[in-house]
Specification:
Elements: E1 8-16, H1 21-32, E2 37-43, E3 48-53, H2 60-67, E4 72-81, H3 82-89, H4 91-100
Length: 101
């Protein structure tokens, strides 16, 4: 199955009211198994996290439903393409960005 590089994804930045490292680990694993999730990171220590997902494959309501017990609050939202996500993931880009500043 191929994915169009211009396919639009959504990144939600989240803040949690009821989370610890164990709950974060369990929920992150649960979300990683979902087909509509592209990236997810939940940090029980900072009470923050993010999820990048395909809203067609996984509705926002389902994502927030899975996270409900952690009391999520959306603090940021951004649209990005698959190409932008891939480019942001390149380790050389992160290294070059630090040396150019």
């Amino acid at each position: 199955m191929s994915v169009r590089p211009d396919k639009e994804l959504v990144r939600l930045d989240l803040k949690f009211g009821n989370i610890d490292w164990e709950k974060a680990t369990v929920k992150q694993y649960e979300l990683e198994k979902e087909l509509g999730i592209w990236r997810v990171f939940l940090n029980g220590y900072t009470r923050r996290g993010f999820a990048v997902f395909d809203e067609e494959a996984m509705p926002r309501e389902k994502l927030l439903g899975i996270l409900k017990e952690l009391e999520p609050e959306i603090v940021g939202e951004k649209k990005l393409t698959v190409s932008e996500l891939a480019e942001a993931s390149y380790s050389w880009k992160n290294i070059l960005g630090k040396t150019e500043s």
